[in-house]
Design brief:
alpha/beta, four-stranded mixed beta sheet, 36% helix
Length: 186
């Protein structure tokens, strides 16, 4: 709905957005004064014929019906050395494995593709990107639900500090609920 674009614009960036939901486009354009087009990513053209320094996909890349086509298009729209940065749910996460069909982000009506750190890195690298950073985190997932599941899975009672340490170990093992990535166009 434009919050990220608004923040980027307010900190000095020239911004442009793409969104398939017309209600979101209308809000971003009407209330926030943003430039947003109602299209799929792969149907966009360069704005004013200019290539981009940064393209972001924050909890949106999993919603694309043709993500590899979109990835190739994103690569073509970036300047040499430009960045593609994003966040997607992690299908190989601790909670996904433990909750199975009850995992919150397992949503076949909204998420066309579920990424793991391995598959995401593979597709980025095979489409002309250098993956500078790929980490996992609890992120937008309910932090209390993650902590409760960690404590429930433990064989012994855990203190809050021990629970926090276990969650950080989950992130380090690339099993956090969301994947955060920074990939540079080669």
């Amino acid at each position: 709905w434009g919050a990220f674009l608004q923040n980027a614009r307010d900190t000095g960036y020239e911004v442009f957005g793409v969104e398939v939901c017309q209600k979101m486009v209308d809000f971003g354009v009407s209330f926030l004064g943003l430039r947003i087009e109602p299209k799929q990513v792969e149907d966009t053209c360069l704005v004013d014929g200019r290539f981009y320094n940064v393209i972001t996909a924050l909890h949106s890349f999993e919603h694309l019906p043709y993500p590899l086509r979109a990835l190739k298009h994103i690569h073509s729209m970036l300047k040499p050395g430009g960045w593609f940065c994003g966040i997607v749910p992690n299908i190989d996460s601790f909670c996904s494995r433990k909750l199975k069909d009850n995992w919150f982000w397992l949503d076949p009506n909204m998420h066309y593709v579920h990424w793991s750190p391995t598959t995401l890195q593979y597709h980025l690298e095979n489409n002309g990107f250098y993956v500078a950073q790929l980490t996992t985190h609890t992120g937008d997932y309910d932090a209390n639900a993650v902590a409760e599941l960690v404590q429930r899975e433990s064989q012994v009672p855990m203190s809050a500090d021990e629970t926090e340490e276990r969650i950080k170990a989950i992130w380090d093992a690339k099993e956090g609920e969301e994947i955060r990535f920074f990939a540079q166009k080669l």
